[in-house]
Amino acid sequence: MPDTISFARGAPSLDIVDVEGLKAAAAAAFDEDAAGTTAYGTSVGYVPLRNWLAERHGVQPENVLVTNGSMQADAFLFDELVSSGDAVIVEKPTYDRTLLSLKGRGADVRMVSLASDGIDTDELRALLESGVRPTLAHIIPNFQNPAGYTLSLEKRHALLALAAEYGFTIFEDDPYVAIRFTGEQLPTMLELDEGKGNVVYASSFSKTVCPGIRVGYLVGAADTIKAIAGRATNTYISPNQVAQSIVYRFCVGGGLDRSIATVKAALAERVAALTAALDRELPEASYVAPEGGYFMWVSLPEGTDVAQLFTAAGEHGVTFVKGTDFLLEGGENTLRLAYSGTPVAQVEEGIKRLAAAYRSLPAAV
Amino acid sequence: MPDTISFARGAPSLDIVDVEGLKAAAAAAFDEDAAGTTAYGTSVGYVPLRNWLAERHGVQPENVLVTNGSMQADAFLFDELVSSGDAVIVEKPTYDRTLLSLKGRGADVRMVSLASDGIDTDELRALLESGVRPTLAHIIPNFQNPAGYTLSLEKRHALLALAAEYGFTIFEDDPYVAIRFTGEQLPTMLELDEGKGNVVYASSFSKTVCPGIRVGYLVGAADTIKAIAGRATNTYISPNQVAQSIVYRFCVGGGLDRSIATVKAALAERVAALTAALDRELPEASYVAPEGGYFMWVSLPEGTDVAQLFTAAGEHGVTFVKGTDFLLEGGENTLRLAYSGTPVAQVEEGIKRLAAAYRSLPAAV
């Protein structure tokens, strides 16, 4: 058992990465398309992968741009659509790097409460009716980071209606979509929008192939994609062709489907272990068990000081991310547990340590 | 023979890329360090490659940052050091993407004449004495793009003295350094500066491994590197780990040295063919034969209209980049010939076509 068990990092443990499959895909990339794999491409991405993604999403290639990881895609999109002072809607809580990135651009970040079925669309409507005019709403619809919650179909429709009525773009940030291990797949807002241009969609291969491959992508209106492709050309000429060619071979060779099956099975088992351990060791914790993805949000009784808990947890050999990191204010009794990097045995031991840390706090009853 | 022979693109032909070596390096990457290759890294780059680069440049790892190609490194450095309105020195002519990138940031771009032994340091001194206070001087010291010229040792010292006296940073942009096929290697300004912090150095593996691998790097003062690492974290978390791990194995396995030898031999042969063909077919052309790199700058008699020549060349089945693309003004009788992508047989035929296009111009005598 490691000295410190980490529930902090949203990254897969090596046992659920198909290393042999990647090695074979790399060999195929150099064998099957040596020229395309080794040469400069253009900023829209490796053409076979771009075409494959377009087909997968039922759009044209001109609607797709492949990037060096989806965070790079986010950065380009924010550069394109968000100016200093612009109102931007985000979920409360949301991904800490998104918060940082928007604050760094001087955006007027407006957090709207997140429920276990997604962003509170009534609260958002009230905010819009009060006169706030966002350029963008950043939404992580499936197995949200950090909460693990999923946006309901009803709310997907409601968001699209608000976007059309108030003229903002929905940035559908969807890296976890393929990792659903229970419940039914919902249509993306990109699909539901039917090409009306209210949605820019981002996803990545970090959770289905591996993070080190750094391949993400955007799907959106052709003019938006073209503008972002111009930014990409001026930033790096083309995204990594070797990595994209490997991903393409991994996908078409069946590696992607196999890898998704492996990841889903492992993570479902970890969630079961995590919730069982929490119920047993730390019944004060409340949570909604995620239907997919990497993360679970945990609330402890009001008055718990998560900063104190974090310090105590470190002393007990377990770590996580404080809920306060995902919020502009509040969340002092919350935390995010990532189970993507922790095999089942570590999950159980880690929750024992977390419970011991909680019991060691002066404020705990 | 292709319909159009291209002297336009600064990219290697596939025959000088070690595809089998890359394939073996990729297999080694997944075999030898599956965890490091597939996981997120940090924004400073894949640790073994960063350490290898530090040793190669005689610096500490904290002085090195690996990026997704060196143009991304340029972009970060410009974001860090160049604000709108800042004076920036560039060579006249210089790389067109650098010009675009600086103009896009609102820099006050000051071009200083380039001679066959490098930037005119007397002209630069006069500009500085006139009161211009640049934040940065962008210099491509070896086999400059577009001119193919190399900065003399004397001028390297002169530039460093000016940088120290007037307090600007030299951005030593050195992607071609390893591709010297004649003459003696000169010390980098980074080395000559002996850690005084007046130089930030950039290079890449695009010319020695392949462009599609998109691995570049910066070497500079630890505080500058740290600041840029922060920007990189917020942009893409980490550069491509798979690609860096492949490059690292390619380097330590001897592939890099073999590849450099292949490229040097091929390009030396192409330069010999290019100059012989020009002397024979187009004796009006003047040039300085490069001692390395990808490019040769060609001047035609005063009064030649390179835009007309470009059109005529297209009709004759040959293409190049107009000298005017590398300048803010002037250069109407100049062009850049890239020989990196044209095997010898194409070089000879291409120059015949270029000469025929030149003869077809109304202005030609």
Automatic annotation (TrEMBL), chains A, B:
Cofactor dependence: pyridoxal 5'-phosphate
Residue span, Aminotransferase class I/classII large domain: 6-354
InterPro entries reported for this sequence: Aminotransferase_I/II_large, Class-I_PLP-dep_aminotransf, PyrdxlP-dep_Trfase, PyrdxlP-dep_Trfase_major, PyrdxlP-dep_Trfase_small
Superkingdom per UniProt: Bacteria
A Gene Ontology molecular function term of the record: transaminase activity
Pfam families attached to this UniProt entry: Aminotran_1_2 (PF00155)
Keyword terms of this UniProt record: Aminotransferase, Pyridoxal phosphate, Transferase
Protein name: PLP-dependent aminotransferase family protein
Organism expressing this protein natively: Paraconexibacter antarcticus
